[in-house]
UniProtKB/TrEMBL annotation:
Catalytic activity: 4 Fe(II)-[cytochrome c] + O2 + 8 H(+)(in) = 4 Fe(III)-[cytochrome c] + 2 H2O + 4 H(+)(out)
Lineage: Bacteria, Bacillati, Bacillota, Bacilli, Bacillales
This protein's encoding gene: coxB
Coiled-coil region(s): none
CC cofactor note: Binds a copper A center.
Cytochrome oxidase subunit II transmembrane region profile domain span: 23-121
Signal peptide: none
Name of the protein in its database record: Cytochrome c oxidase subunit 2
Amino acid sequence: MKKWLPNWRIVSLFSVMALFLAGCGKPFLSTLQPVGEVADMQKSLILLSSAIMILVVVVVSIIFVYVVVKFRQRKGDKEIIPKQVEGSHKLEITWTVIPILLLLILAVPTVSYTFNLADVSEMDKEESDALVVNVTAHLYWWEFEYPEYGVVTSQDLYVPTDENVYFNLEASQVKHSFWIPSAGGKMDTNTDNVNRFWLNFDSERVGQAENLFHGKCAELCGPSHALMDFKVKTMPREDFDQWIENMQGKEHAADTDLAQAGEEIFNQSCITCHAVGADAQADAGVAPNLTNFGDRTKIAGILDHSPANLEKWLKNPEEVKPANLMTNTYGNLNQEEVDALVEYLMSLKVDEE
Ligand code: HEC
Ligand SMILES: [Cu+2]
């Protein structure tokens, strides 16, 4: 009997692994650390379905092992066939009723949450003051439009806390999927229809990630799919209104000579795709709107936001994000031009310091 006991080394290995894996969830990127109502509902479904599955696996395994041990052929008793239970009504009813009950336990909350999560009736009301964001997924970046306010931004999504935020989701070239793990999702963004859903960020809990959550593309869309990240900045409603006002009023003036030189280069080589300023919607959809580029937390969604990384991006975007749509669309920039562009782009800010 003794040799069946697990070795202490194995026990400690598994305990260390469990401890290690327990550290996997990061508060800005974990479905298991929900930040709002939608994420709470989704987490409870994950836990419920996992519990049911584990229960089934454990019970079936125990019965399996029991049967194998109990009815095995022992030494000496050859060709004895145990009593057959085929056609037993009692057994057949039991193993039909139990799964039905388990499915009911799973189905009732799932259906009720599904309807609740799909309830976007607020968006169709005439006099609604619900906040709507139009999300367009592009290769390999995200565009966010606030249609009530005439504001467009990209890569960093700004949302107020403690209210439902409604999303219209679309894609421009190929299918992507919009996912903010801590807040909810995923929902596909398609090229031929608009999907709608809502999310909610609880002000009591946004502190867990210092008001900055990570968003992801969750549908394989091309070579840079894994790099198609975005950020979500959460803030109280007043700060959000202030941000909208700043975005609307933005008349940017380059304040140093270098930035001015950068602006000139930008207006020659980059403005065909990128837009800057309050009326920037004109060219929306081709390239990220850069009105508040200086406030971004990342460059192109993934590089840390620093002048050195911006230089790296401008010199060779392909190296950072393979197959992105900026590669090879403008001539080679010399060092002076890069320096000027970096100075100019980093000065594009609307947030108050
Ligand atoms: C053909 C259109 C096109 C041209 C021309 C172009 N870009 Fe881009 N740019 C893009 C696209 C598309 C992206 C998004 C790439 C991605 O993330 O996959 C991008 C991304 C960027 C980003 C990162 C934006 C962010 O929000 O993090 C910066 C900065 C940038 N471009 C600067 C420039 C500058 C400066 C020039 C001119 C020298 C330029 N671009 C010329 C299409 C263009
Ligand atoms: Cu993708």
